[in-house]
Input
Amino acid sequence: MKAIHLILTGAVGLLVGALAGVPERRTDSAASSPSGPNPSAQDRPQLDRALAFPSDNARIVRLFSALQEPLALKKRFQLFEALRDLTAQDLPALARHVESFAYIPRSELLPTLVDRWFELDFEAAQSWMLARPKEFMSIKAWATVNPEAALREALAMQSDWRATSLLGAAISQLAGEDPAAQAARLRTLPRSELRDGVFQGVLAAWAKIDPAAAYASLAEIPPGQTQDAARDGVLREWAERDPAAALAQINVLLPTLKAGVLGNELITDLADRIGKKNPQLALEWLSTLPVEFRDAPAIAAARGWAVKEPAAALEWCVENGVDVARGHRNGFNGWQAGVLGEALAAQPAATIAWLEVRPAGPDRDRLLERALEDSFWRVPKEQLFDQGTAFAMRLFEQLPPESQERTATALGRKRAEQGDLTDLGVWAQNFASGPARANAVAGAIGAAYERDASRVETLLASTASTADRDAALRGLAETMSKATPAGAAIRALTITDSAVRRETLDAVVTGWLKRDPETARTWLRNAAAIPEAWKQTWK
Amino acid sequence: MRTLFPLVLTALATFAVGFAGMRFISASAPRVQERQAAAAALSEPIAASPAAADPSPAARSARIAAVLAFSEKHRSLSDDHALFLAISKLEARDFLAGAEEMLARFRKEDSPFGSPNLPLAEAWMERWLEVDSAGALRFLESSTILKEAPPGRLLRSQVASVQGGLFAVLARRQPDWAQQYLTTLKPGAPREVGVFQLLNEFAQQNAAKGREMLAAFSEGADRRAAVQGYVTGLATADVRAGFDVAAAESAGPLRKELLELVLRKAAERGVGIVRELVDRVDDAALRRELVADAALEIAWRSRDDPLPWLMEEAQRTPLPRMAEGGFDPWPGAVAQAVRTTGDPVRALDWAATLLHDPEKKLLLSILGTWDQRDNPGLRNWLASHSATLDAAVLEKLGRTLVNLARRDGPGTRAWAAGLPPGRLREQAQFQIALSSAAEGDPTHATAAYASVAGRDTNGALAKQLATALATKDGAAAAKWATALPASPARTAAVSAVVEQWSQRDPYAAAEWLGQMPPGAERDSAVREYAGKVVYADPFAAAEWVEQVADPATRGKAAEAVFGTWKNEDPIASRAWLRALPGVDETWRADFLRKAK
Output
């Protein structure tokens, strides 16, 4: 009995001792709490918590430690090293765990994990992917490790959205990097939309090496949208590599092409590409085309020329009736600067000098105005207003009054966007009194408010005249009107000139009533400073 | 007592053995932090010792070439591994020898949306400073790289540039030099990027020093970048402190940007802290925008489901109704957040009953962004709600149904055939037929339209069909449209035909217009035509406008033409507008005033 007591006591003692000997458990975060601000565990980024994978497995710990590295390239390095150490047995549970992460950390880790899984246990990884039809990742690893199996699965999927990528990756593994060999391998497969889709990609790659051969293989895809898209892709590459040969081919196609309001997209694109390499060739070719095809590609080709030889490109346009102010359109919603804009971006001083010697008149005026607007986007900011260049002011000063009035707001905005405008009153002295000056001041303070609202009172205080201050208040109210209409209306009410005050308030209130009528009406009811007659007009 | 003594002795002895044993075992197994440190040490690249590095010019060239070769590639994880390893093998003199080539590499793929070379630039500078900080700094002082304006218009994208990466490393490793260097730069983007990174780093590492730096940069052109950098860093270390600084800014776009920035950091921590911070925003409109932005971040970066919180926010009484017209970020952001979290059904059930959204913008947005890999799920939801979806929603489902048919034609056709008779079924069958018209077979579509024509009171469906028909054959589409009885549907169809046909074949469309009898239908058609032809020939478009008889329609046609023409010729376009006959003078005065 005594012996039993002793053994039991010994066992209990051992157990209690062992329990007492367990070191106090410290979590990752407790160990790494910053000494300064100490957010509670609840407030820590959830990624930290998600990374706390319950494992003593050093390989897995190393994997998650890699994700904490702040230097991006070093993180990738460490991730690679950590993945290299994983075993096939580690991966099922790890993948399950990482799947539960939020979208961004999941996207960062899961594809690399599945790539590694394919290397370590192809069958398991493939089953995992097949069970998750929404996952688009590790396609390359899938096909690299076992291209025959990947090809089989791709063909079995057919309409699955991953099938084209998987088949393409499998083909490039089986046939090698040579597109001709890939095309040959594809020809052995039964015709299908899936095969056509992959063929299109192979032809695009082939065209980069041997466009003529790729073009000759177009018939592998049945006539229709896919074949047309493949043909256009091959011709585009051909134009980059051998413009003359591409043009010969497009001339053959020409009778089948149609020109719409914007010309023909393929012809314009080819002219754009060839114009960057050999503008004379492109422009000579365009002169042989039916007139309805010419305008848009002529602008495209001359833009490419203007980057290298602005003055020559501009002169050619003038001589051949191509409008240098007209933009290059990509569809009805896409617009890029025209020949003048490209020339200005390449050589602003020379382009402005070219404009300045044009004969005085409406055409020169419109080109100067277009050039000023293009300069806001295409000329380096520091050259717009800096002493020595000041291209924006140089163009502005040559505009007729109406053009100045139109462009002054944007000019003021550009000036203030630079952030170093400290005295609005002094800057306004660059302009004669009148609507252009008012617009310039309004534009400047609007941009200053958008950049840093804390600067606005200082700028307002720096205005030297009532007219400038009113213009500034108008600009401020107009800029504030969308986000803070009540604040904008209050600013507008402080304008001294009653006509400007009314006009500004009208713009603010009208927009506010459209966006949020209930709040706007309530505010108006309580706004004692606004005459009742004005309120009536907004009802 | 004598009997207890051995027991006590045994208990004490075994306790001691157990305690010591466990401590021994624990000591031999590293704790989490230690394991992480050990792992980091294991993965730390071993820098080649000076003795081991081959100083010959050939070896130097090879080391530099290795870095450049890897940096040229579109890189996989293993390529990045090799690149980092190659950088870590560079020696002090290699850096200077290869610096210009490396800078050329950095500039090669610069992008206004963040440079793909940023990680490379960071790692390169980090290593150079590690092996030869004096040489690296001397080089930077003589180089223009940090003086070059990074691409991008917003400071946020400018910071994600090569220059941003270099400044980030400098701010961390050589803050005094970085601060001194910044004073030599003129105001502008390069200086702003540096100020941002410096403040960001200080605010993260040492709040007191960060405040001091903020005060030093809080005047003039530097202030915006300084506040943005400071708040970014502070919010990384302490999101509430970051919020306090952001909220104290003057009301305006910068304050909103700072609050968004802080809430994005908070979103990594889940809904709770975001809710706590958003509750401190009094401005209802601002709050609504912040919630939309934060919801998306929560969905992307945390494991919390933002939907219950969004439901609460949507019920708040001061929340304005969904904005009519114009851009409203709420529906799009909420729909994307729901899509990311992957539970659209609950969200749709809620959006279908949302009182603040009479136009059901949120519902349509969620339907429109439904995961395209889940066609059956979308069809199931629509089928189970076919009786409760109102006519306005059904009318706007066209795009969703077309996409369904495009992605899975057979499945969608079978589903539509199995729907109970009613508007959803009609709409679905019409949209399916429409996709076949787009592929070249108009017969199903015109027959399907005949079955829904009676309900097409505003012509929305006729417009869709006319557009699809005219994309293939303008003349046939025109014949179909003009065969419809006089109705809003016919008007919409004719306008749609002209819009499409004039884009694709302006000469044929013009010929057809020339044969149309005068009247409202022709006026509308000419208006559409002029609005397209102006892209090719503004003067011809202007002449067409003068063929519109009705003054109000002529005014609208003139607006469309002027809107495009003014970009190329503001002077001629205004002169034309001032002299245009046959328009209402009040309209002209008002339009010209607004067109300033």
Notes: Chain A touches chain B through 113 residues (CB under 8 Å). The CA atoms of residues 158 and 194 of chain A lie 6 Å apart. The longest strand of chain A covers residues 328-330. The beta strands of chain A are 328-330, 334-336.
